[in-house]
Specification:
This protein has 2 domains: 7-176 and 288-374, Zn peptidases (Aminopeptidase), CATH 3.40.630.10; 178-286, 2-Layer Sandwich (Alpha-Beta Plaits), CATH 3.30.70.360. Helix content is 30%, strand content 22%. It contains 9 helices and 15 strands. The protein has helices spanning 7-15, 27-39, 104-122, 144-152, 202-214, 263-274, 296-309, 324-330, 356-374, and strands at residues 43-50, 53-60, 69-74, 94-95, 98-100, 131-136, 161-164, 175-176, 178-187, 230-238, 248-257, 278-286, 289-290, 336-338, 353-355. Strands 1-2-6-3-7-14 form a 6-stranded mixed beta sheet. A hairpin with a 2-residue loop joins strand 4 and strand 5 (98-100). Helix 1 (7-15) packs across helix 3. The chain is globular, with a radius of gyration of 23 Å. The structure holds zinc ion. Zinc ion (ZN) binds next to helix 3.
């Protein structure tokens, strides 16, 4: 490992790889990180879920029988969007405290910081516990890389605690909402557009459904830090041509759950509410994450972050979902914190940036979090 590798420079190196998903093509970026980790002493495995779609699992062992701490992040990014950028999205341009580029916030800044912190820990000689880095491909289109790693079973190994470096402006979140994406279909009967009374209009049925959904609320009680579930009608499509009565309409519903009501119960409640005229079909379904604020490791992370934030953190959660939806259950529901240098408001936007000072601060904080896990101090009694 080069002694002077810093997270800012590594973020810029990662930004130079075009990993826009679709199509993804994370392999070269993964190889770059894989080499750094291997040179730093990590047992490194590159794992493809499809051609060119490469994730990394890298582990360094500790001396004792303590499961490693896992740091995880993704290296794919969303597309650039239709509006022109004022900077080159792959050149890591700097303006004052801002580092611009697609993925600077979501989440190459976070990945760079965790890799630098892990490489530092690899140089420690008296390490009781190890570190595992899980750096995934294909997160932005439904956690595909993470799902593949989970499916492989033994590749992930064990973990006793998980840090997900998604954008939180360095605020430690105790978890995030789950996601349940549904297709809602209405059916009708086609007829000539000039004889509408001879058909059954599926779009009229869909319109009624949309009207009902606008005011629908799940019965789940409010979660202490994940709040209430939400529902958004994301798309609607129906009809074949202007002069036919449409016999089919489809909507896509984006439901964000709060770890109180199971997804199955939510689906049943919604089906009940909408009645038999509507057919519901699952498109994507991952539960949320909610760590216990009183967990000893969670408290330790809060303690580490307090000087950076100026105050002890409160229990908060994120509305977006992450690879933790898959990785945390695979790691036997190890306590999980979402904590990264990116700006939530900048994710997926034109002229995405990350504050350089946040990348520096989180590198130090990750190092301290890893240090406390890997080199536990004797308990004071
Ligand atoms: Zn992300």
């Amino acid at each position: 490992m080069s002694q002077d590798l810093d997270a800012f420079s590594l973020t810029r190196e990662l930004l130079a790889f075009n990993t826009i998903n679709p199509p993804g093509q994370e392999r070269e970026c993964a190889q770059h990180l894989g080499k750094l980790l291997e040179d730093g002493g990590f047992a490194t495995h590159l794992v493809d879920f499809a051609d060119g779609r490469t994730s990394i699992v890298a582990t360094i062992e500790g001396a004792d029988d303590i499961p490693p701490i896992c740091f995880t992040g993704h290296i794919d990014t969303v597309p650039l969007g239709l509006v022109d950028w004022k900077t080159d999205p792959f050149n890591g341009e700097r303006d004052g405290n801002k580092l611009y580029g697609r993925g600077s916030t979501d989440m190459k800044g976070g990945v760079a910081a965790m890799v630098v912190a892990a490489l530092r820990m690899a140089q420690e000689t008296h390490r009781k516990a190890g570190i595992t880095l899980v750096i995934t491909a294909g997160e932005e289109t439904g956690c595909l890389g993470a799902a593949h790693l989970v499916k492989l079973g033994n590749r992930l190994g064990k973990a006793g605690a998980i840090v997900v470096g998604e954008p939180t402006s360095n605020y430690p979140f105790l978890g995030h909402k789950g996601v349940l994406w549904l297709k809602a279909k209405t059916h009708g009967m086609t007829a000539h557009g000039s004889l509408p009374h001879e058909g059954v209009n599926a779009i009229y049925k869909a319109a009624k459904v949309v009207g009902k959904l606008e005011h629908f609320k799940f019965s789940a009680p409010t979660h202490a830090y994940l709040g209430k579930p939400t529902l958004n009608v994301g798309t609607i499509q129906g009809g074949m041509n202007i002069n036919s009565v449409p016999d089919k309409a489809e909507m896509e519903l984006d439901i964000r759950s709060n770890s109180v009501q199971s997804h199955q119960a939510m689906l049943e409640e919604l089906a009940d509410f909408l009645g038999k005229e509507v057919e519901l079909e699952r498109i994507f379904d991952v539960e949320g994450i909610s760590s216990d604020p009183q967990n000893a490791w969670v408290q330790q992370v809060f303690e580490v972050m307090t000087p950076y934030l100026g105050n002890p953190p409160e229990a908060r959660g994120a509305t977006y979902f992450t690879d933790a939806s898959l990785l945390t259950p695979a790691y036997d529901h190890a306590p999980t914190i979402i904590l990264g240098p990116g700006e939530m408001t900048m994710a997926h936007k034109t002229d995405e940036y990350c504050y350089i000072s946040n990348i520096g601060a989180i590198t130090e904080a990750y190092t301290e979090i890893a240090n406390r896990w890997c080199k536990p101090q004797p308990q004071r009694t």
